[in-house]
Amino acid sequence: MTVIDHNAALARAGANVTGWWSRTLFFARRYPLGAVGAVIVAAFVFTAVFADVIAPVDPTATNAKYSLAPPSSMFWLGADFMGRDMYSRIIHGARVSLAVGAGAMGLGCVLGIAIGLASGYLSGWVDLALQRLMDIMQALPLLVLAIIMAASLGPSLRNTIFAIAIPLVPSVARVVRSSTLSLRELPFVEAARAVGMGELRIAVRHVLPNTLAPLIVLATAQLGSAILVEASLSFLGLGVPEPHPSWGRMLSESAAEYVRTAPWLVIWPGVAISLTVFGTNLLGDALRDLLDPRQRS
């Protein structure tokens, strides 16, 4: 009996691996640009997780002897004006940028889901009050509101995440609210009420899971926006402070003074930011087509 159970478990595991692999191949064939975006995002996530192993030296270690050293066998991507290895700083910058982007996206989604679900499910004066608050927040562009928040809170890693997360809330709340308004009138919600289920349980257990498909697409797009806003805030001196290596701060320190004498100080942070945002946008577009039947050809 044990042998049979063991063989059955192996068969199920093999079927799961085969199914996962077939779905991956289908996604790559059907959405090749989305697969390219997924590879780019996965590469940056891997770089961020294993930055301490991949980076050859400490990204904050300075050496005036090698100030503005060009790319060579010692400094693969050159050195900055303080003699810090640009390759190590780019690698560790991925950790900072992805941590800020993912943290801001996660916090913004949590707050937006709570507001959108309450607004759409309760309706009435709750919906009116919450939506007017969202209108006020959306009156300012994302970057402008993030600059105001960051300037008010001060430069730090935690404050940067919070400053970027708050402007992301209205878009999440709108998406969740619109889905909730249509779902709350469906028969399965009426059936849950008929069996005596509480309103909070209905909203969380039955309505919320059905709003996740468009939310996943929005969250992927917001990840790229959050990374770009973090780079903009750091460029303006309002984002992640030293000694944390940030791509935006690298540009801020080098763009004006060293763009002609040491162009590698500007090129590599710009390439890293562009690739990350490009990859998340490609992945988000593919997920939109995959999860929304109206977008499928």
TrEMBL record:
The keyword Transmembrane helix applies. CDD domains: TM_PBP2. InterPro entries: BP-dependent_transpt_permease, MetI-like, MetI-like_sf, OppC_N. It is a multi-pass membrane protein. Keywords: Cell membrane, Membrane, Peptide transport, Protein transport, Transmembrane, Transmembrane helix, Transport. One of its GO terms (biological process) is transmembrane transport. It comes from the Bacteria. One of its GO terms (cellular component) is plasma membrane. It is found in: Cell membrane. Residues 94-284 form the ABC transmembrane type-1 domain. It holds the Pfam family OppC_N. The chain crosses the membrane at residues 31-51, 96-121, 133-153, 215-241, 261-284. PROSITE patterns: ABC_TM1. Belongs to the binding-protein-dependent transport system permease family. This is Peptide/nickel transport system permease protein. It comes from Enhydrobacter aerosaccus.
